[in-house]
Amino acid sequence: MTDSSKRKIRMGMVGGGEGAFIGAVHRMAARLDGDIELVCGAFSGDADKSRQFGESLNLAPSRCYGSYEAMMREEAALPASEKMDFVAVVTPNHLHFPVAKLALEQGFHVMSDKPATFSYQEALQLKKTVDDTQRLYGLTHVYTAYPMIREAQAKVQNGELGAIRKMVVEYSQGWLASKEAEDGKQAKWRLDPSKAGVSCCMGDIGVHAANLVEFVSGLQITAICADLTSVVPGRRLDDDGTVLLQFDNGSKGVLLASQIATGEENNLHLRIYGDKASIEWRQMSPNTLILRDLHGHAQHIRSGVGALHPQTHSAMRLPAGHPEGYLEAFGNLYAAFAHAIHEYNSTDKAARQFVPGINEALRGMAFIEQVVEASNQHVKWCELKQGRTV
């Protein structure tokens, strides 16, 4: 619920113009609770298109900028009562770092789409800028904000699963299964190394899976064995991959990510096995968390039903039986970020724990680059010796 005693947080946006999927999602999520209003933007690398798109959103023409550099400069010169409070960065990957860095240096908080930067070295520079400016930095690992994921995390933290032994996380999509898919705007930049970075599939969705398994388990990935593939001929970046994982408690896991899994939509699937119980969650059925014990009993825990942990309740918006999903989870991140901005100068830092930040940014970029590096090492493969056939 919106606190009427607080003013709305003013948001600017870089990227997210015509034909951009994620920009519209950010705008819808940001206004979901009425805490945030979009006041300005640089929505395209084409100055005319940027201004036209901004005006189509009913923004003041004077605040529809032709470039993000002009936007930062001119917004910084406005009175404190008018200028934006933070910038949402929703560009292709290669622009995440320069936009975020300039925004932080101009005194603005930043909410960025993932991955945080183009490279791990840029992520290190970004962390230094965050530390130097002491501005807030958020990263939209949206799946951490689903109610049942918060419930899963609480159950692990409370020891209900016991010692964690095994984890399996899968993120399968089929939208890049055909060669023809490459003609789309979203595919073109994701498959272009100059804009996406060293990875397509792992950089786009694999990093979400890695972040989710660490978030829920509270453990960190310490070693990997990876195999990435460009299945569709002619692609310069991976569209499919498998990663074996080792965690800091000695447990093992598997991460599967694919964008050529024909027929799949957005199948993010998490399983965590402890020595007392296990949990299972699917993004395609987000309101259900399955808890299984050693004796074969399975409990289907539903959002809004029964005794749930406080952190789960904080992520719920609707009564039981009213599906909540992607937009609401995105809204949870933005609501927490808005609250953190309101409380920026106070000692109340509670809201910040619900928004992935610069540490998750560093881990994400390290994961992406090291998975690619590990995949290029062939010493991990052992040939299967042929037995004698009769």
UniProtKB/TrEMBL annotation:
Segments forming domain Gfo/Idh/MocA-like oxidoreductase N-terminal: 9-139
SUPFAM superfamilies hit by this protein: Glyceraldehyde-3-phosphate dehydrogenase-like, C-terminal domain (SSF55347), NAD(P)-binding Rossmann-fold domains (SSF51735)
GFO/IDH/MocA-like oxidoreductase domain segment(s): 149-280
Any Pfam family: GFO_IDH_MocA
Name the UniProt record assigns to this protein: Gfo/Idh/MocA family oxidoreductase
Taxonomic placement: Bacteria, Pseudomonadati, Pseudomonadota, Gammaproteobacteria, Alteromonadales
Keywords, alphabetical: Signal
